[in-house]
Amino acid sequence: NAQFEKGTWSLQPFVGGGIATVTNAGDLSLNGYKLEKKATMAYLTGVEAEYQFADKFSVAAGLNYTSQGCAWDDLKYPDGTKINEIEADLGYIKIPMVANFYIFKGFAVKAGVQFGFLVNSKLNMHAEGKTDFGDGTNRDTDIYTSINVKDNFKKFDFSIPVGVSYQFKVPIVIDARYQIGLTKLNKETADKNLKNSVFTLTVGYKFAL
User: Considering only CA atoms, which of 39, 96, 37, 42 is closest in space to residue 72?
Assistant: First the structure.
């Protein structure tokens, strides 16, 4: 069977990735230059437990760690210095709870609620170029900078996950979800209303308990 029977429990560890951004974050101003915002890669790993209430209906709850955020375009100065890999890296422990409706054997559409708890928040960037040491020599420089900005963000995030999944006979599960952020991320009331927006694709192995 490509689906667990009514009245059974199953457990599914999974890993995956996706695309993330922060809505309303806008462009970034750096030393008088305007950098456009863009999406960044998301990574997650976790586990989910599922109870099959009926042949076509189940509920699941999970625990995972997700690295997400947003990024900005690279910057190149007239002297050749480059600033790249500019990104806001937000790490969350998340607890999703979803209802699964099986349209046909193994294929489910799902929706639910998700509680996220911020565990790290950093602004990262990479600079590379040449430095004049004043003795007539120029040397290559390669600097990675990471600034802790956790105090600028709220510790709790609430979102609505919606998506689809397909369980093969192995049983390997492919799961695609879009997480719609509903809570404001930033603490400053005068700032824009920043919210998470994340699409994930995971692969898991599902076994009976």
Answer: 37
